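User: For my dataset I need records formatted as: sequence, then structure tokens, nothing else. Please produce one.
Assistant:
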Amino acid sequence: MVHLGVPVGPARLPNRNPDRESIRTMLTELEAIGFFGWKDARSARAATLS
């Protein structure tokens, strides 16, 4: 969520916060499958409306 601009605080037990390398790997893999396409499409649509 932090990557999307939503501050959420630390993970609650029994979970742990991921390290930076884990986050980087996850974001790279999500980008590779096009997961963030909805975010880019939404931003483009908002730009055309303003």
